[in-house]
Amino acid sequence: MRAHEDRPRGGSGRIVAAYRVFFWLTVFLAFARNGRGQEADLLAHEWGTFTSIAGNAGTAVQWLPWAVPADLPKFVEHFQSSNFKPNLSGTIRMETPVLYFYSSREARVSAHVSFSKGLITEWYPHVTSYTPSGNAQTVAFNEREPDGSVTWDSIMLRPADESSLIHENEGSRYYAARATASTPLLVSSPAGQQQEKFLFYRGVSSESSPVIARILKNGSVHIENVTGEPLARLFLFERRGNATGFRAVSGLDERTTLEMPVLKDSGADASEPILSALMEQGLYPDEARAMLETWKDSWFEEGTRLLYIVPNSFVNRVLPLSISPAPRKIARVFIGRLELVSVRTRMAIEEALAKGDETTLARYNRFLEPMLQIILQREPDRLKAELMRRRLERPYLPVLAQAQTP
């Protein structure tokens, strides 16, 4: 009865009701203005690499690297354990994406990223959650749902923070990514607080490569862009010992055929156009240089490869990213790396096998196993084929032993 008596009546009720509508509309607009202010003040920039190997048909093949990379600090966290990834094959190995934030004032954000037909295998700082969350000995990418993902909640951006970041004595390519003016961030988790200049992650997927590259009988390479969106920049790079060469293509729509480059250049000659390409796509100069410093020893190593700007449509489909509140601008710049078994590579590997030259074979590092498999598929010489089979049996023992170590 008392509640009924307190209810406004007649005109006064309409006035109060109108006031309430006005009040909540004012509150809503205030929050909306604040939200737009956060978005207007927040920027996000990301770079990373998609690495694949082209088989004899030109498409990316499933591959398992023999060399287990030890290029990450021990504080980086792993899916299940650091021994899980050596058993994980895929067509694309997503290497060192780093996500920078820029804000002139303190702000709290969250980020979620998933990898189509894949698994995110390493990350830092500590994530709030990841999928799949159960234990797994092997992963069938084409059968598992949902796609692998990680989520960071409650990331505090702290532009005035000048605290020192964790740094181990052992060298690592990881640290080069810190050489930017990005806003420091603090992530809180049950394991404690962790500070960094970016969000870091890696992964493996069975997605198809956005580029197909087939070696022709005359030694040239036929390249097809299957994304439906032009490739802004593409570089065909080759290194033999200290001699290097590269060819550059801009705005590749569908296909082209390139002769192998003349080996008259240096790694430095290729660095500048790659830096320019990264900045053209929206990276700041210090971000572009941080990316180059992180990967130049790998991009410019022995062998033949394509390096190209991955179209945003492919990046956003294969690696969807959501940030809340939404930044005013997000720049995502990924380099595609497609390793090629060129005529020169095949001849160099066959000659090294015949001589037992492990020094030369070691130059192909983690790509040696898939390269041997690709060459073996079309090797008519029985003796050469037998040498490859024997060599293929050898490196698995130390890799498996490391993977079984608790």
Notes on the structure:
The structure is a single chain. The protein is of the alpha+beta class and 406 residues long. It has one domain (43-406). The protein is built from 10 helices and 18 strands. The protein has helices spanning 2-6, 10-41, 267-280, 285-299, 312-318, 343-355, 358-362, 368-377, 382-393, 396-404; strands at 43-53, 77-78, 92-102, 107-115, 118-124, 129-131, 148-157, 185-189, 192-196, 199-205, 211-215, 221-225, 231-240, 243-252, 255-258, 303-309, 321-324, 329-340. The strands form 3 sheets. Strands 2-5-10-3-1-18-16-13-14 form a 9-stranded mixed sheet. Strands 4, 6, 7, 8, 9 and 17 form a 6-stranded antiparallel sheet that branches. It has a 3-stranded antiparallel sheet with strand order 11-12-15, with no helix packed on it. A hairpin with a 2-residue loop joins strand 8 (185-189) and strand 9 (192-196). Helix 3 (267-280) packs across helix 4 (285-299) and helix 8 (368-377) runs antiparallel to helix 9. The longest helix is centred in the N-terminal third of the chain and has 32 residues, at 10-41. The protein is globular and about 65 Å long. The termini are far apart. Residues 1-38, 139-143 and 397-406 have low confidence and may be disordered.
> How many strands in all?
18
Please give the alpha-carbon distance between the first and last residues: 71 Å
Number of helices: 10
Quote the average pLDDT: 86
Shape estimate = globular
Counting structural domains, the number is 1
Helix content: 25-40%
Strand residue content? 25-35%
Major β-sheet profile: 9 strands, mixed
List the helices and strands in order: HHEEEEEEEEEEEEEEEHHEHEEHHHHH
Strand order of the largest sheet: 2-5-10-3-1-18-16-13-14
Structural class: alpha+beta
Task: Work out the radius of gyration.
Answer: 26 Å
Low-confidence stretches: 1-38, 139-143, 397-406
